[in-house]
Amino acid sequence: MSTLETNYNKSYVWMVAIIAALGGLLFGYDWVVIGGAKPFYERFFNLTDPSAQGWAMSSALVGCLFGALAAGPASERWGRKKLLIIASFLFTISAVGTGLSNNIDIFNIYRIVGGLGIGLASGLSPVYIAEMSPAALRGQFVSVNQFTIVIGILAAQIVNLLIAEPVSAGASSEMILNSWNGQMGWRWMFWAEAVPASAFIFLSFFLPESPRWLMKQGRKIEAKQIFEKIFGTQAALEIMTEVETTLHKGEEKINWKVLKEPKIISALTVGVVLAVFQQWCGINVIFNYADEIFTSAGYAVSDILFNIVITGAVNLIATIAALMLVDKVGRRPLMLWGSATLAIIYVAMGACFALQIKGLAVLLLVLVAIAVYGVSLAPVVWVIISEIFPNRIRGIAMSIAVGSLWVACFLLTYTFPMMNKALGASGTFWIYGGICFAGFVFTYFNLPETKGKTLEEIEQSF
Fold first, then answer.
1. How many CB atoms lie within 10 A of CB 113?
2. pLDDT tens digits for 153-207?
3. For residue range 419-428, what is the model confidence (pLDDT) as tens digits?
4. CA 144, CA 90: separation in Å to the nearest integer?
5. Nearest CA to 123 among 20, 202, 265, 7?
6. Closest C-alpha among 211, 249, 248 to residue 228
7. Rounded to two decimals, what is the model's pTM?
8. Which of 93, 95, 305, 332 has the most CB atoms around its CB within 10 Å?
């Protein structure tokens, strides 16, 4: 473990991490709010075809993909800070526009705009925080982004519950359509996001630029000032020397050829596979299609909204545990435990649906799955992909990994209604269990431990 970053300005790093992580909060809110609005906007837009339902749920993912792919090249050219500011504006535009929509195509367009914000924030916030954090606690600080994602998820769930008026058991589609929920309630679920989005716009202007990005641009004086503010004068000079050894002269501009280097390919393979695995493990289906899962388990609409809030609370508690464990236990043990445990849980969930075991048993399995995911795959994958790529190409490599994540997420979200219809809930969850087992095998053979190492030490190890 390097001793260069032992002493640091705690209050300053926490302030920077929390502001940058507001992108994560909006990511979480925007991502999950649609799940609570789903029973109402589907009636409003008369969405009955599984393909149309899947597109409405997954249209934002198109924006996520393009936002993630653009984040790397754009942040390498213009810096991390400017792209975070742009993301904050996109979240605000999406929140207002989605709620105003009276046409499903316009609705999907604004969801795509929000997805662009998610794509930018999901790739930029973890990298920015990693580049600003001390090595010994980098996992904890990067996990703050996951923590705010979970807060955003829980906030969306609570807002959905508070806004939606109670729906009586056995209410018909026509009754739901003609209710306040069906006409206006779902709109306010989206509009509520404009409040934290506006705060992010204001606060993001106070963020400093990443000193490691400034070093790559040759702006050493500015980088030194920021490093000094975080670590002090002597440590700043030593860190700058270490960073400089990882940068190649003349590579201020994007150099795509380095992607062919064996050590870059090795790191990219690990990053891409783990990013895809984090999505294909299936947990996001529980959040996005919670109403269908709990309906299959025998719950009514009002009960479902309450249960969704419970899942969000469990996710929040699990993420707090992850903040304390990721730099103590390490990345590798948490990934192995999480993937193996999820595989077992999904087999049990599939059995419950196959045997028509409903109610509390399914709810408990869902809660345990979310808790396991919240402690392991959810925060740890973001930590890993933010730290394993070299300084000179971190933005580009992160874009590739996060872009792969959103492609995987799109396929997962879009195909679930069709898989659920063709295979039933039991077959679908058994498939996710098999994917989790495959993820365990890959992690066991390919993921090194990175806790306690500086970004430059990790780069040398690859």
1. 21
2. 888 878 888 887 766 556 677 777 778 777 888 899 999 999 999 999 999 999 9
3. 878 888 789 8
4. 22
5. 20
6. 211
7. 0.78
8. 95
Residues in the chain: 462
Token look-up 């990693």 returns 130
